[in-house]
Amino acid sequence: MSRSFRIGLFGASAAALAALMLWSVAGLPAFGQYHHEYGRILNASAPSERHVTNVVAAVVFDYRGFDTLGEEFILFAAVMGIALLLREVNERRPQPRDDVGSDALRLLGVGFAAGLLVLGLYVVAHGYLTPGGGFQGGVVVASAFLLLYLAAGYRAFHALTPRSGVDFAGSTGAGGYAVIGIVSMLLGAAFLHNFGPLGTPGTLASGGSIAFLNVASALEVSAAFVLLYTEFLEELAAVRS
Amino acid sequence: MIPLQAALIALVAAGALAVVLTRSAVRLALMSSLYGLVLVVFFLVLQAPDVALSELVVGVVGFPLVILVAAAVERGR
What we know:
The structure holds 2 protein chains of 2 kinds.
Chain A: H1 3-26, H2 37-50, H3 55-63, H4 65-90, H5 103-125, H6 134-152, H7 154-160, H8 163-186, H9 209-240
Helix pairs in contact in A: 3-4, 3-9, 4-8, 4-9, 5-6, 6-7, 6-9, 8-9
Chain B: H1 2-21, H2 25-45, H3 49-76
Helix pairs in contact in B: 1-2, 2-3
């Protein structure tokens, strides 16, 4: 293919793509004016039907709970793939060194990490009351351990995230989510249908099985991200040494 | 709210362009983290705090870390 032919081909296809995109943008509702029936129905019915104050949590862990199961296993499979690729190589490598010099930095960083951990647990626990939930809170919890690595070094990070414990938490969370769905079936409802006492709206004891699914996904997500960080940090250390 | 939203949309567009045009991997990690932060503010202004939280932890912390480690590994070789 000659250069001018390639440029011509690119020009024609780029123009066609631009025309299609402009056409689709022209068909969009005005900015901020999208009011679909689904959102209106959920906003009206979720608080009374499921006793939660964060409708997003009701969608993620109840009305669309099956979608979340798929997403959980996507993350699980992705992190497992990373572990499979990197772990075999890492086992033959020396442990990373701690290279944090300043005591003040250690103290401040560990303090921040502890605060971040509490914030993560709060975001998880209040997932169905205020914005947040298992996924967001889970990654905040994992970030707290990452901050611990930055402030206190690899040994502290490794001591607080033993591999067997992380693996156990991750698989318990992923499997537990599916088990909660099966419990719904044993109780005579559809897979992942909400069960249990719905409780008082606006308190931690509300939402029925949304609360359990929330904790299961938090376990899975935090473990998956800690595992991801561990594998990458060990890879980094192996290259440095 | 409209001027704020317009300013943020412009920032998001400029940030996306900056991320695409960044060539050095370390700078890319910093730039994508910064871009994630702009998106967080944008989602907050559009009243989507759940999405903003997800973007905060994945876009600002998780993704740049992966790039940073990849850059360090590449440099070490």
